[in-house]
Amino acid sequence: xxxVIAAVLLAAMLVSATxxxxxxxxxxxxxxxxxxxxxxxxxxxxxxxxxxxxxRNFKLQLKEGQQxxxxxxxxxxxxxxxxxxxxxxxxxxxxxxxxxxxxxxAENTVGYYEVEFKGLPNNKNxxxxxxxEGYTDYESQEILLKDYSRKILIGSWEGxxxxxxxxxxxxxxxxxxxxxxxxxxxxxxxxxxxxDNQVDIEDLAIIHHxxxxxxQAVLFETTAIVGTIVDQQETKNELESQGxxxxxxxxxxxxxxxxxxxxxxxxxxxxxxxxxxxxxxEMEQITIQSPPxxxxxQTGEVEVTxxxxxxxxxxxxxxxxxxxxxxxxxxxxxxxxxxxxxLGKRVAVKKVTIKVEKVEGDTGYTVVENIQFLKDxxxxxxxxxNSIPTNxxxxxGAEQVELSWKAVNNVDGYLVKYxxxxxxxxxxxxxxxxxxxIEGLENLTKYYFxxxxxxxxxxxxxxxxEVTATPQPNKVPSAPDxxxxxxxxxxxSISWGKTDDALSYRVYYKKSSDPDTAYTKVxxxxxxxxxxxxGLENDVSYDVYVxxxxxxxxxxxxxxxxGTPEKIEVKGPELPELGRIxxxxxxxxxxxxxxxxxxxxxPNGFNLKFVADxxxxxxxxxxxxxxxxxxxxEFDEExxxxxxxxxxxxxxxxxxxxxxxxxxxxxxxxxxTYLTSDKGNVGSGPYxxxxxxxxxxxxxxxxxxxxxxxxxxxxxxxxxxxxxxSLSEIAFYEYNGVEDQIDALFANESKTKLAEGVDEQTINQxxxxxxxxxxxxxxxxxxxxxxxxAEQLLQNNTSALGIVMDGIQSRDTTGDVRVLNTLxxxxxxxxxGKKIVVYAEIPEGESVTLVPTQFYAESNSWKGTPIALQNGxxxxxxxxxxxxxxxxxxxxxxxYSGSNADRIKLQIRGNxxxxxxxxxxxxxxxxxxxxxxKITNYVEELNTxxxxxxxxxLQTNIRNATEISLPYVLLSLPADQVQSGISxxxxxxxxxxxxxxxxxxxxxxxxELMYRTHGVDDITTxxxxxxxxxxxxxxxAFMYAAGEHIGVEYGSTAPLVQGIPAGSAGFGEESLFGxxxxxxxxxxxxxxxxxEITNNIYSLFAQTFDAGQNAKASRLELSDLYPNIFDKTSSxxxxxxxxxxxxxxMYWQLHLAYDDADDNFYNLVNKAYRSGVGSxxxxxxxxxVVASEVAGxxxxxxFTQWGVQxxxxxxxxxxxxxxxxxxxxxxxxxxRRQRMNNSGSASGSVSMQASVNEKEVVINITPSLSGSVQGxxxxxxxKPYAFVTEGSDLTFxxxxxxxxxxxxxxxxxxxxxxxxxxxESTKEEVLISHNNVISRDLWNxxxxxxxxxLINFTQPQTVAGILFKDMPELVIGExxxxxxxxxxxEQNTPADEETEKDPSGESNEEKAENxxxxxxxxxxxxxxxxxxxxxxxxxxxxxxxxxxxxxxxEDAGLTEEQPQLPEDNNGNENGSVTEGDQSKxxxxxxxxxxxxxxxxxxxxxxxxxxxxxxEENLxEENLxEENVPEEDKQETVPSNQIVVQVxxxxxxxTTVLTIDLKQTDLxxxxxxxxxxxxxxxxxxxxxxEDTKAIRILxxxxxxxxxxxDFVGYPGDSxxxxxxxxxxxxxxxxxxxxxxxxxxxxxxIVAGTYRGDPVYNTIQILGEYLVGDIAQGSxxxxxxxxxxxxxxxxEVLEEGALAEINNGIWIFVPNIQAEEEFQGxxxxxxxxxxxxxxxxxxTDDPNDAQSKRKVSDTRWISSPSDESMxxxxxxxx
Length: 1772
What we know:
The protein is α+β, with helices and mostly antiparallel strands. Helix 9 runs antiparallel to helix 10, helix 11 (928-949) crosses helix 13 and helix 20 packs parallel to helix 22.
């Protein structure tokens, strides 16, 4: 359940009829009387014990201006009190929450205080102030209460109300730190910040983190103050029109006073609450609050009308707050019942209509206290941590989203996670910089994004807050497809398919008889894919088309569809009347199972007479399909019948559901007779006749019976039918022998042969009888045609026969691996609405169906419902399958799967047109001569047929059709295009025949290849086949696959008869119909499931097929995609490649690796799938397991490099095979050719050279190899990283993103064409260390008139210094800008203070001044400290002092480091490290430390230094003299100084750097980088977060913006001191306890670091030689060295322990532990041959498990024991 932290605000939405006058009278006062809420949430990041909160004396003040409105004490209990503000009564609610922001129950700690001021006067500014013992005072900026209630979230960790003020002076600084440090380990109450009776590292960590002036309060706009913007008159009108009775006072809706409004349902039973706004109100959530109990709102829907992208939209959101049946729940707020409706996004709402469908108690009324409209949903448990990316922003583009966020220090990169639902991220992208572009997205689809930081050592931080973005199209949408029109009364129902990139649709219409210029556009903007077009004339044809619209504009129009409105009446079909038995003859109607009635259809009750009352408005509907549907009718006397008519319900789709029937009769004596062959089993009965889907009634013929006293009828439905079975009317008919007598003229049911003894006299007699009988259930024209046929056959004129099929094909797909299409063409077309007659001779028990189709159809409407054929006469009305404006109708087909195909005989007559058909399904059983004879006959027929077609409307003319029926494919194509395809370059019949012959060979070859790839070795066992048809294309397509068929556009049909088989001489170059057809066949056959990828496996096999080695160039090779493929496989990036053809490479490489000349890897893969291999897995994992099984190798590396994420179970299954030694993820087409030609492996050597330039590492590769080489794999930190292809520039540039102060190892492996590693280079280690320059695209600079250089950043930046470059000879003169005296840096050393001199005569302080404080790398810090604190020349000396350093010890062994309590080194002097004659190096920027007053805040801090007020930065002459105190008067910047100031808001500036140009020559390289130090030259580094502007005062006039850059924090860093590995010269005591001593002779290692000792840990790694040295079988092993690390951090004289320190560390190896670990005989090698130092950082000093590597050193060699220096540690 999502809890909303929001002020409750009432919405003016409900009024009663009696209060409407009050509504009008008070509306003018609403603006001035509106009230809002202000909530302050105080998050205690260090939860307080309830017993301690009283001691803290927490107080909160609410102020209006300088006036204190209220002072609230925050205690251990919740409270409620009343105050008055400007005469208004305001309720103050104080609640206590736990650390999860849930109301306290049994907990004993407080995580949050929430103080809510309800009913504050609107349009006023308020401030919130906080105070408590041990906390810094806090006061917010002014908070304007207008339009929305407000909520301020103040955190005690980084929210400005900070814990750690030990001295109670309102600040957290060095005095607090000193007091805690001095009392570490004691039980002092004043220094015990956490009040746990122990002063320990927790207290130190809190004070260390919170020192300085921090502030990051977060302000939200919550509930809309709607009193001033509700359209009261509109609400009044709608309430009246809805007939809602309202009880209660309107004013209660504007005041949160606990009063309720009762709304009684209207006469229609609806409760509707309409709310309109005079102006749009931004909101993303609606909350409805009701008192608990009867009438509380539970379920319903909210209709929201809003503006988005300049368009008005309406959406409906359902809600359901009811508990499941039998469940009783309570809410957190026991005084109200809330319904929360999340709109899914923030929108500008114009109107809200709430429809209540269910209330508690089903009372018929609802009770509402208030309604809230929330703009900001305040998240639960807001987290602020420096390792979580913040300020995540998303900018949508076309099919992409650009992301940016605030950089995180000390990380290597970021993981961008995204998906299409909140919190469910299905895709991932790894980037190295704080920005990313996500491509390949779907326009108008909402995506959710979150980002986490990571380091290369495996650490991943927490996800950022989630953002959303919806990619927008950059072009108009395409034309809508699948347009359909259905008639309604004076209206048309229009529908179409969803169109990509469409926001809405427009409908245009006109009368069909009007010109094209007469189209009218429907005014409504339509967002659905359907529309009811009203106001039309019945019985008039209309043309309709649709366009799609988006923000770019309106797209092209769709195809035109036609429809005719008609009055919808409950009108049944007109039934034959001749011989109809009157319903009066029916004496009884019964149901075999009377309960099978859907009673929900009959609220007034069901009556059996409904089925025989001559009223189509009454009917019966079954409740369940499996229950008996048998009706029994009894007559008053025996009847003679042979058919009846069954009329289903005439509404809806009931007529489509009729399937089979059974008839049983009884005579007057009760003798039972089955009149259909099924003997009462409806499931095997005959199919109904007369095509009821079109005619709306079914004819049920049965065996003639002259003694029917009682008859039973049962009809069933087919599986998947749209409705249950129904019956509206049944009609019985007396037997009339005319049709039987006509049937008797023929010797068979197909009516292709006359019976014996038929003469002309008999025929004429029947003709006369027929002419006298016009009203008959069989169309008399059909019977007349049968008499004419009999007459022609009597004259031996067989040409009078229709289309005769003497035997058909059986396509039984029971054993098919893949069922596709089983259609058998008849060779005929028919128009929709016309009647055809099929005379069928079908063995008993066999099922033959006729399938009508639509010529030039869309993919979803090309085929009609199959029509079951019965023995004898089948009269069929051709159905209409499309409403598009085109000729309706198409080809006819049969479907049959039985075993008596040769015994089935058909004759098709009526309104049909015979088309050319080439039947070659029996190709394999025919001789070449027989094949060519059939082809010749077809070619000649086709020539004649096409010539007679003419040239008009050939693309839509249903007679422009032909069928080519081949063994494994059915081509249903335009006749003229087939004629064109076989005629190109072939004028003679013989040439055309030859072309069709080889085309058949090519199709057979292609289909055998496709089925073989699919795992079918014998294609002749497959009964179904692919049907490739000429179809209407949807937008942007030229062919498509749709399971049962493949659609091809008109212009692509001719090539389908121009195929050339491979490997056959004399036919020319092989052509298996191109990429597209195999691609679509692949769609129909693919089992691996990656659409547009794995279906292309079939295309690749077709493309490379040559009937030999099958090694023609593939698309991957022709399109030069292998370099892209190798980029993917070398990176190992998780997930699919965005480029489908690159991803296709994964599947093709398995063919390249394992298939010889005629092998097919996927033949075996598909067989393995069908046999169940890998059935315990799914998706890509299963494919990996199956592929390993087929290959016989463990392919874990292959799939891992392709980014497939394998579970441990999958890896285990694959490890059952031997490991594939080749790197087959680097194979190409040429690799397979070389392998099949038995080419040898490459050999030789390869070397590399790595060079570093800022953030770039350049790898130059130098090979010396023989043999064919694919390229060179680049390894980074021992993992594959990139690939350089042979033949390209053998240089690779690695751009390092966020990582800094880290080492990386690179290595090159040469990979030959066979995938073998031919050679490896040695590893080379590089150190990345750069200045972290901020891109110049993110800032601009302008010189002001007074000489000030003003820099504005395009977005807030973290800035830590300025980097000068290309500096000219400086022109130093008097400068105009001024700063206050207080901004001038204080001198560190008083003039009269004595300083200790070293032998050179310089004091330490003098040395410090002579050494540039901006050390450019931590590696040089050792020299800096050595020069600064010189010791004995012969030895190394390290001095420490408590006054200037704090020390932290930690275990550096094999277990995780845990910070130890820092020890107090009383009275120690400044330490130093020196050694012999070591050379002096320039110090690095690492020595800079941050300012104690560094701030992070969202709200501007109210405690800025006085000098930052903008008016005080004006020149003195601009202020009245009397207003300028003497001590505050300003003076100009001295001509020899440059002053840099920063600002978070662009107005208030603070000095962060002062450069004395007399002492610092900025033209010298060592002085170019100047890190900020808050104007105090004591070594600190000031990191300025959220910097919006910088100004530089005193900048010489000849220095421009081209001469400097700005830098961010370069990150934590670690380095070894030069020569600081040695043994102690004497004992060193580092703590007060006598046991805390490092003995003389102890081996130590020393170094420097930059970072935060509270959050940093150090580990020393060693490289050991392990194995059997005597046998020569050794290898190196890296592991941590056992020992302890001591960190020393300087405490600045002018401030607290800085967050960023330049410090010293000492490592003391644990010799005993190392000896035990290494074993006997290894005591002499405590230090390994090489060592490395690693610096880690954690966000939680109490959780070392969360550490991440932020810096490391290069490997350095350990000195021998003889060469180690003696080191002296000076100080106690």
